Amino acid sequence: MSRNSFAFSTAGSLFRRRLASHFREQTTIIRTAVDWTVLLYIIIPGGLLGGRFYYGFWKGELPAWISSVPFMAAPILLALLLATGGIVLLLQEGDLLFLRQRQDWISTIIARGMLYSLIVTSLKMAAAYAVLLPFLIKGYGISAAGAYGLLALTVTSSWCIKLLAHLVKVQRQGFRRWLWLIPAVTVSCGIYLRVAVVYKDSPLQLFAVAAGFAAVAAAAFRARLQLRGTFINDVREDYKQRMKIAAIMLRGVLDKPRPTRYKPWIFRKSQPLLAAKEPESRFAAAAIKGLLRNPAHFKLYLQFTGVALIAILIVPTVLKWLLFAVLTALMAYWLSSFWLLFSGDDYIGILPFTKGQKADAGSKAMPILLMPFAVLCAAAVCIPAYSWWGLLLFVPVGAAAAYGIANVFSAMRFAR
After folding, report:
1. Max CA-CA distance within the chain?
2. Which one of 6, 177, 392, 399 is at 20 to 30 Å from 366 when CA atoms are compared?
3. What's residue 151's pLDDT?
4. H-type helices in 43-143, by residue range?
5. CA 385 to CA 122: how far, in whole Å?
């Protein structure tokens, strides 16, 4: 069959189509937040004002505060940029089906995607470096050759860091990813900072280390092209990189999606939590595990506990017990709301629990969930107020408060 019978006769034409689609996608995302009014009244005047200041830094005197800022601040700022961003491969889920027999096409798209990403990274680092350049030359006295050497070091180290981090991300999952990702990024950034600070006046050493970074980047580039069996991870990481702008814009509007977990991070073997085998006990244990395994609920529990402890510690002794009772009641109210939401879930509705059984299960779960909070808050009250006696009192006092307040809210809010 003729190549002309296909929509894309070569891998290059397919890549160009996807690159154009990527540009349109990013432009559409940006236009949802930045319209012509914002461009006219904020971005253009800000750009003109920034350009005027930049021209003044070259032609006039630098601000007086630059003399009190050490040179290391500039490489640190650049290193922070080096550690951000990633590689865009422009792969799609459908490639697993339609391009499965054309591995050379997939390799071409990956290679050109990496080249495109490295070019964008180079432009980003060069722009950031250009902003700092008048301070480097006029403020810290770096020569022209040293400035070029530092630029080469910055660009090549960005290639190396992006490719090494990408190799780790598409091959590792869970905590193993961080075990590999942290040294891959921090070691490279540490080498960059060390060389930039020590050899800022030695252009030959800067270019030599830059050549070393370039060699490592070339080896990582070649290793990525030879990598097999990571298509699903490639698509996932590619999607994350393409959606970064959208994620920044929606950060304050939508909750961050929970990461996919193959096993829960706590109670990994789903062992029984309560010794009793009644249905109500199993139901209560499921609710306790559900709160601890849900990152949003568990984070809110820890945050409220931390704020409560600080509040109790800073108020006078006369008010500690009153604040302890109020905060414990607030936590009990939130936990009872969590139980009502958990027991009213559609999935729970499949199980043949009566209202009485749900209330009994909630009455068992509430004291257990409230106990850590109440005991810690009781320690914040008793130890500062009663010294050594407080070490003996805070556990029974907290346990009694948790049991009593939890039973009160259970009786008030759980319908039978």
Report:
1. 90
2. 392
3. 92
4. 44-59, 73-82, 95-98, 103-134
5. 60
